[in-house]
Amino acid sequence: MADSRAESEPLLSRARGGSGRDCLEGSAACRSVRGGPGARSRRDLCFDQAAVFIEDAIQYRSINHRMDARSVWLYRLYYSNTCQWILSFTIFLILFLAFIETPSSLTSTADVRYRSAPWDPPCGLTESVEVLCLLVFVADVSVKSYLVGWAQFRMNLWLLAYLAVLVVSLMDWIVSLSLVCQEALDEPQDPRPGPPCPSAQPHPRWSLAVGAVRAHRHPTLLFMNLPPLRIRRLLRPFFLMQNSSMMKKTLKCIRSSLPEMASVLLLLGVHLCVFTMFGMLLFTGKEGDGQDRERLMYFRNLPEALTSLLVLLTTANNPDVMTPAYSKNRAYAIFFIVFTLIGSLFLMNLLTAIIYNQFRGYLMKSFQTSLFRRRLGARAAYEVLSSMTAEGEAHRQEVGVRPQDFLQVLQKVQLDSSHKQAIVEKVHSYGGDLLPADEFQKLFNEFDKRVIKEPPPRPEYLSPFLKSAQFVFSHRYFDYLGNLIALGNLLSISVFLVVDADVLPEDRDDFILGILNCVFILYYLLELLLKVFALGLPGYLAYSRNVFDGLLTAVLLVLEISTLAVYRFPHPGWKPEMLGLLSLWDMARLVNMLVVFRFLRTIPSVKLMAVVASTVLDLIRNMRAFGGILVVVYYVFAIMGINLFRGVIMAPGNGSLAPHNSSAPCGSFEQLEYWANNFDDFAAALITLWNVMVVNNWQVFLDAYRRYSGPWSKIYFVLWWLVSSVISVSLFLALILENFLHKWDRRSHLQSLAGDPDTTCQRSVELLFRDVLEEPAEEELMEKLSHHPHLQLCR
């Protein structure tokens, strides 16, 4: 009763002389009471509400949720690190099930010639894990629906879709379990009369490879041969999308740019059709000449001609598709050159330009939205705390927040200690004065700064010699010397790789390389000890580059000691015999690979390279949402591919239509030994999709799956090419350009930090772009707060 009453009353209400409307006395939920336990409980509720608003502002979350005491407790519990970790792990687990459940990917190879029988989990094992994940999602959508309220739930399409996906998934799970995981259709009978072939051994899933020819006469067989379709597997990526606000924004932007992309794709289709018809009319020569070879190989019929030119659009079959006709007459090259110029150089790049133009400013729009949510959450927290100040100290005319109240709320906020300490110091600088709204908002800029902890004090030595040594070994020139030694080590490895390129491992003499490795590793150890001497152990560990060097030096030292213990000290004729877990050559290779990795320490020493490296790291952080979109696309197409093409690729022999390698045409799927590129399990499907996305030799996949499963298989691969290579890659290119240009143009901000008084902070990307963002007006914030569905703002 008390909670519902607190929610129904206005949360933010206090009289503001001469502006807005005055709230009735006693209507404020956070109104202070002079004494009694009710005053304390209301004060705690206001502090909790302010803490929630601050957390929403820090995380750029929406503040449109319930704010009564029970809901605030549930909201903070839901967004706690533990609950969010459980939800993230559940999403990962349900997506990872595709590698384990039937068809399992737990084999050493995907090659159908060498692959052993995979382990299939017993019925109910993966289903039990899956239903636990679904129950977690049911609890998730239930909590979200309760927190936003029924009115908001009905208008939230993502929550409605979330509920629908869960209902369908649970129903599909019940069907699978009721059929004891045997959803496979019965093996269809060939409608043609006649005895069955005694040499044929039917695949357990009624292999499409065996029935491909019959599927041309009886198309219904093609669909009867499909493995069981489990709808819930196709819906699993939705759980990843609905949990990421950035992925939702990306999908919204993709949806808004679909009309422009569709217009270019339509123009691309017209271009393909026109040149296909023109090519079929052009290449109709007599038998035995170049035109006839061109027709027989690439323009036999309309589907083949269309496929040949579609592949040429990606330049995957250039110049093979042109060679037969070009060998007969030079003029035929004009046809293919004009097609490539219009399609590949103009239309494809035009599509990229359209996507870039549509997404130009997307990063700024995203930051602008985040800034508005930050200011709105901070303003809501300010209104809650300032209302307590106005009612607790009615004699004061000033409007603001008491610093002690804000500090008390800050202790409730989930925030790392370094940022808390920085904000506490900032608040203490105001003394006992009330914090006005603009100063209160400025406090939240501290959340965008990555606080750099001051390094621990260095050891103090009394001896002048030790002081001089400390100065030398802590100087940056000592780091430059270490970089030079690492470069020398890398060059020595490169020389030996070139010299020993044509020598078999068992014939190599690793005496000189072994000596050099010992010398370099001893120097790395000496460098580590000298830096610990100069900086002290806490000071040495305070720098990430030192931790990186120290870990690699420790690993190198362990490997070198193991090598010396097993193979003794290097000597002439040092042979890589297998005496332990690894041969000498394997251990030397591992050491050398770590040395190459250690060379990355030189990147921060070169300023321009450091800026590029930091730009790449920021791009990776900002590309997580788009990487998630790519994961979703891969997952859906992999599951579809398993359901469409599982078992169609079979090794030569055993009733397979696949020819042996010796009789296969040059450049075919069989001759190139692409047997591992199949859809027999989830991991193999992902690799196959990746190889098709790269579009190198993807015509080989089109031809093989056309022969083994029918001509309609091309639709699947062409759709995948459009989604992955055309749309997704163009989208990534546009967004990388957008991120890189903004970061590169503002690299001066990184250089200006040296003269900035806040030298103990690094600025995040949001703060670097803050100067080009538009600050929300106070009227806009107050108007948004006044329309909050679960609180009433009286002004």
TrEMBL record:
It catalyses: Ca(2+)(in) = Ca(2+)(out); Na(+)(in) = Na(+)(out). (Microbial infection) During Ebola virus (EBOV) infection, controls the movement of endosomes containing virus particles and is required by EBOV to escape from the endosomal network into the cell cytoplasm. It is a multi-pass membrane protein. InterPro entries: Ion_trans_dom, TPC2, Volt_channel_dom_sf. GO terms for biological process: endocytosis involved in viral entry into host cell; intracellular pH reduction; negative regulation of developmental pigmentation. Keywords: Calcium, Calcium channel, Calcium transport, Endosome, Glycoprotein, Ion channel, Ion transport, Lysosome, Membrane, Repeat, Transmembrane, Transmembrane helix, Transport, Voltage-gated channel. Homodimer. Interacts with LRRK2. Interacts with HAX1. Interacts with MTOR; the interaction is required for TPCN2 ATP sensitivity. Found in a complex with LSM12, TPCN1 and TPCN2. Interacts with LSM12. The chain crosses the membrane at residues 77-100, 128-147, 159-180, 264-285, 297-316, 331-356, 477-499, 511-535, 547-567, 625-645, 715-737. Gene3D superfamilies: 1.10.287.70, Voltage-gated potassium channels. Chain C. Residues 89-359, 476-740 form the Ion transport domain. This is Two pore channel protein 2. It comes from Zalophus californianus. Residues 1-22 are annotated as: Disordered. GO terms for molecular function: intracellularly phosphatidylinositol-3,5-bisphosphate-gated monatomic cation channel activity; ligand-gated sodium channel activity; NAADP-sensitive calcium-release channel activity; voltage-gated channel activity. One of its GO terms (cellular component) is monoatomic ion channel complex. It is found in: Late endosome membrane; Lysosome membrane; Melanosome membrane. Belongs to the calcium channel alpha-1 subunit (TC 1.A.1.11) family. Two pore calcium channel subfamily. The lineage of its organism: Eukaryota, Metazoa, Chordata, Craniata, Vertebrata.
